[in-house]
Amino acid sequence: MFKDAQYHELIRKTVVAFGTLFNDLYVYRKNSTGKTIQKMKVPLAYGPKQKFLTRIDQDSSRSADNVRTTALTLPRIGFEMTTLQYDPARKLNRIQKFKKVKGADSKSLQNSYMPVPYNVGFSLFVMAKNSEDALQIVEQILPTFQPDYTITLNVMPTLEVVRDVPIVLGDVNYEDSYDGEFTERRVIMYTLSFTAKMYLYGPVTSQKIIKRVQVDQYTDTNTAVAKREQRYVVQPSPTTADADDNFGFNEERSFFQDADTYDPVSGTDKDS
């Protein structure tokens, strides 16, 4: 069943493309006159939310051997893939194919069946130590998604398939982990849920191109002694056309009374 399975890195490409959307966010610090005194790029990393919260809680703590641990700097953005779900509403005709001539070999054709639609769920965490920084980041993100933003991915370079992938914004949740203890570090967190509507492709196969089709027709139902009476031939026009050229077809019909038979090995007609 899986002997021809191939890894196209489609989920990985989607994860990387999603993270890249948030890789250029900044927080601006201003003085009392409104002048910008600091511009800081917000760090971005992939990982579960609990991992970041654990690192933040380690701030100012010391290990058993009296070594101070390094805490995460805030503000910061983290994200992770949370779900992978089949989407029947976007299902395509499974018997249709993508086709492309195989490199410089114009006599071979690469093809793959229509892809399978999947929704990839993401969670994005905006973490900051004060409300001003958190709101700056959130207000840079939310207007971009109305409620979706479409990215373009080169999903199948071998077949030159480029596909648009909508990223849909869902819920936005707010959380303040400050419990009132003076020694605890306050973390304000916004969690944004997204869904990427992508497709997964199966294996790419290669096959030779058919440039001539010939059908011999008979009136005798006894195939052991039946003789050809009519021949139907179809060829591309021009016959030198490659699979990815713009070409038509020439159809030819011939009628016979010589009772010869066609030899597929030699490609010639022979006397019976």
Overview of the molecule:
- The chain folds into two domains: 10-61 and 68-206, STM4215-like (2-Layer Sandwich), CATH 3.30.2000; 210-270, no CATH class.
- The chain is 11% helix and 45% strand.
- The chain is built from three helices and 16 strands.
- The strands form five sheets. Strands 3-4-7-10-9-8 form a six-stranded mixed β-sheet.
- The model has no long low-confidence stretch (mean pLDDT 83).
Note the main attributes of this structure.
3-stranded antiparallel sheet, STM4215-like, 2 domains, 272 residues, mainly beta, 6-stranded mixed sheet, 11% helix
In short:
The protein contains 3 helices and 16 strands. With 272 residues, it is mainly beta. It is rod-shaped, with a radius of gyration of 32 Å.
- Helix count, per DSSP? 3
Strand content: 35-45%
Element-level helix/strand string: HEEEHEEEEHEEEEEEEEE
CATH superfamily of the largest domain: Myoviridae tail sheath stabiliser
Instruction: Determine the N-to-C terminus distance.
Output: 45 Å
How many individual domains? 2
Report the top-level CATH class of the largest domain. Alpha Beta
- Shape, per Cα inertia axes: rod-shaped
The stretches of 5 or more residues where confidence is low (pLDDT under 50) are none
The CATH topology assignment of the largest domain is STM4215-like
Main sheet makeup? 6 strands, mixed
Mean pLDDT: 83
Number of strands: 16
Per CATH, which architecture of the largest domain? 2-Layer Sandwich
Q: What radius of gyration results from the CA coordinates?
A: 32 Å
Strand order of the largest sheet: 3-4-7-10-9-8
> Structural class, from secondary structure content?
mainly beta
